[in-house]
Amino acid sequence: MWVRVGSGTLGWPDEAPFDRILVTAGGPSVPPPLFQQLAEGGRMVVPVGDAQNQTLTVVEKIRGEMKTRPCGECKFVKLVGKYAWEA
């Protein structure tokens, strides 16, 4: 198992693709670099919404397309970075 500390919205392109990605901060949308780094058939869990309320969302890559499924309301700390909220 590998762990990396860095800008969460940029992912870890050198080690991609990933079968699973878990995002532990809420952003306004699914960061495009993270979806790009998801393997075909892979899944990502990411809180998506505004700064106060998010929906825990399961994202799957099926034939290169993004399929999403809401899994309930949640509230995470803000995701910051190029594809999220300003620091």
Can you describe what's shown?
The longest helix is centred in the middle third of the chain and has 5 residues, at 32-36. The chain has one domain. It is 6% helix and 41% strand. The protein has a 4-stranded mixed beta sheet with strand order 1-2-3-4. The protein has 1 helix and 4 strands. The protein is mostly beta strands. The chain has one helix spanning 32-36, and strands at residues 18-22, 38-49, 54-62, 65-74. The model has no long low-confidence stretch (mean pLDDT 93).
Whole-number average pLDDT? 93
Q: Largest beta sheet, briefly?
A: 4 strands, mixed
* Helix-residue proportion: under 10%
Spatial order of strands in the largest sheet? 1-2-3-4
Shape label: globular
| Total beta strand runs | 4
Question: Number of helix segments?
Answer: 1
Q: Give the CA-CA distance, first to last residue.
A: 29 Å
For the CA atoms, what is the radius of gyration? Answer: 12 Å
- Strand portion: 35-45%
Which runs of at least 5 residues are low in confidence (pLDDT < 50)? none
Run of helices and strands: EHEEE
- Domain count: the total is 1
Q: Which structural class do the helices and strands define?
A: mainly beta
Keywords, please?
single chain, 87 residues, mainly beta, 4-stranded mixed β-sheet, 1 helix, 6% helix
Describe, in short, the structure shown.
The protein has 87 residues and is mainly beta. It contains one helix and four strands; from the N terminus they run E-H-E-E-E. It is 6% helix and 41% strand.
Outline the secondary-structure elements.
Elements lengths: L17 E5 L9 H5 L1 E12 L4 E9 L2 E10 L13
Parallel strand pairs: 1-2
Antiparallel strand pairs: 2-3, 3-4
